């Protein structure tokens, strides 16, 4: 259970932090820190088992139909990452408290940060691949918010968008890769997949799966050629950069390489792809880092380079290389986070990050300088610092490679070159910023930052030193279990020691240090040359070009497809439906085997009536009032058909709806011109006849074919299961009650939408009809007014009757609701809106709400009793006078339907009527 | 009988298609009403045509019409009303905002191009 809390606490804590922000910046900082600490504490119960090399899996059933469990796993690798995410997260929260200026919302940063933290923990603790992918996407989204934190700045928005595009694209590829992998292994569970390595590597789909997964990992970890989003993500506030680009976001890609290492690695494709991309990234990152004058830009490219290094190590694929990779993940997280924080302090104090202007800070901020120099020395791989240890292992691995392969000497050579560059840019960071003369024209006068801003940097630097000096006592236990989890076997025996004697790796280290000094000394001509190459091989330009072209293409396609004419679009739609429908008929006989019923007088009359309607509407649709009167006929004819073909419920509903529809259209017509203009109709007529013939043929084909229905179940269980004899009503309120709940919700939404649209609608109604006659002489004729008042009680009585009997006989909430609405509408029609409204002052929004609530609560009540949502129960009650009565809980649901229908129908018609009367009276 | 019901569905569709191809919103709404009649009738007919056997459970009944299409169509009728209402109000709103009731909001009143 505790693992779920570890993931959920930061996400839920984000809401708490947002709420706490009302008590000031310090309060939200304490909350964010407390939340992180709480998540850390929740992790503790499982730490011991993880250190003993066990894999803890905790699962809850989530979507069992798709085999998706909420399954979390903790092993050495997960533990290592969880500790880094939470530990560095805590430091970043402390640091951000002092970094962010008063103008920026601190709580907003914390909210994003905590959501991101939860997503990261989700990735590293997922047992299920699909779950992992969801968290993966969540990190893309939340990092988008974090990078674009200063949303008023264009570069921040652009950087955030670029990061989202690239990592989102990778996420899509990853989804494909995971689906393939899950299919190949027969399960989405990591435990199963990690044990099926041989099977998967031999599978014919191994290559596409590998490519897709690597695409996901490489984009996220900013590997060449997708590295360019990372420098642009530097537009984020520095605490965010320190978090995202040290221990978390960009490490997810290499985490995935480590996680799936036992499954994917060990093939030559893996070696060439992962190793090749890693090496290229290592070199390009280090090369560009040297030439960045922006402090954070240097760190960004250095991050890319180090990610390349880690990728290369996993690409080499030996157990020791994987060990070095994991070790370097730890080291890079510590020294890079501290360097970013130091860069943030410098930026904060100087007001600029340009290294050509920042010089000689040693004199004003010696503490910051000392801490930054230790971290930079770690990057460079100077002995006694942690970076040295993992680099030595790295050199050793490439050196082994050299002895085993022809052309193998190229690898150590390239690696040494990259290390020379790393030494050079680390030197630049130290020498340029803290020495090298005096500062030039700084916007602010720098001095030491607040004490608590230095603490997080100090903590990380102390870790760097402790790991560097006494690795066996500090990092070895966690490293061993993490590597065991990566390899899924007992890790190779390797003692972490500072001194292995004078061997090839040590010589490589010395070469790198000496070479770095030389390159840095010769930097001036190099910088001049780099300035000339500025913009050459800029992946960002290609990205922008692709993006622009894609937008142009989309616009072009839209232009061709959408001419801006609804009529033309509809014509295309109908013609396509006709063509496709006709194609469907080819090859099968039109008439099936089922014997049709013999015609009787009702159906002949209906068909003749319908034909008359068609001709009349064709001839007279331009006279709108006439068209509306004709409209009443087909609805009634259909009601007649429903009566004829054993559907009393439908006939009642159709009749009632017909009435309200006609009233609605009449009201609307008041605001529209009485006539439509003449249009050419020949083509449309042809299309209409073809469409009619098509549907007629389809109906005929369907009716003459035998069928099997699932309704036998409903008919058999209606009385024993639903407690009602009216199978249609029982289906509505019981068997398919959830659908009905959705439908009345749609009804309610439509009514509320109409209400909102009418609220400030200004329309001029017509005083005369098409021939210049006045609409009326008497707004409220006496006979109509009297009759409607007289009829109301009877209408309501009938409505209640229909509602109550609906469960057993034709009727129910829908019909009763419509009847009630009609009765009340009649009052408005007969007596006017003002008169009726003063006597019927009901808030219809409340009626709709009550109806929906009744439906929902009935459903929830059955859940509380332990049954599925909307399960119906019923009892027989014996009442004096009335007799035996069967009461089903579904009737309560039907009451909800009733209220919603009444409220929605009345709201629609009354609001429209009110718009009209308000205008006529002014 | 089945042929005439098919014919009825066809006529309703033809009226609906013809009307939705007009250039004014009012006719468009009328056309959609016709189309929803046609669709409802078609859906209903998918339970096949049965005379004199309503799906009300009794001891004497010899058989029942299929209740499932009936339940589907019943809600479809009510939702259809809500949609019609929403559309017609949308048409009124468009007329208020644009000053005309052309489906594309164009103000020309003559033949369509």
Q: What does this molecule look like?
A:
The complex is a heterodimer of chains A (922) and B (113). Chain A is an all-alpha fold and 922 residues long. Chain A has four domains: 221 residues, no CATH class; 200 residues, no CATH class; 80 residues, no CATH class; 202 residues, no CATH class. Helix content of chain A is 72%, strand content 3%. Chain A has 38 helices and four strands. In chain A, the strands form two sheets. Chain A has a two-stranded antiparallel ribbon with strand order 1-2. A two-stranded antiparallel ribbon of chain A has the order 3-4. In chain A, helix 9 runs antiparallel to helix 12, helix 16 runs antiparallel to helix 18 and helix 35 packs parallel to helix 38. The longest helix of chain A is centred in the C-terminal third of the chain and has 33 residues. The mean pLDDT of chain A is 88. By secondary structure, chain B is an all-alpha fold. Chain B has a single domain, classed as Orthogonal Bundle (Helix Hairpins). Chain B is built from three helices and no strands. The C terminus of chain B is likely disordered. At the A-B interface, helix 26, helix 27, helix 28, helix 29 and helix 30 of A face helix 1, helix 2 and helix 3 of B.
Query: Numbering strands along the chain, what is their spatial order in the largest sheet of chain A?
Result: 1-2
For the record, what CATH class of chain B applies?
Mainly Alpha
Low-confidence stretches of chain B: 109-113
Poorly predicted sequence stretches spanning 5 or more consecutive residues of chain A = none
Ends apart, CA distance between termini of chain A? 68 Å
The total beta strand count of chain A reads 4
In quaternary terms, these chains amount to: heterodimer
Main features:
heterodimer; A: 922 residues; mainly alpha; two-stranded antiparallel sheet; 4 strands; B: 113 residues; Helix Hairpins; 64% helix; disordered C terminus
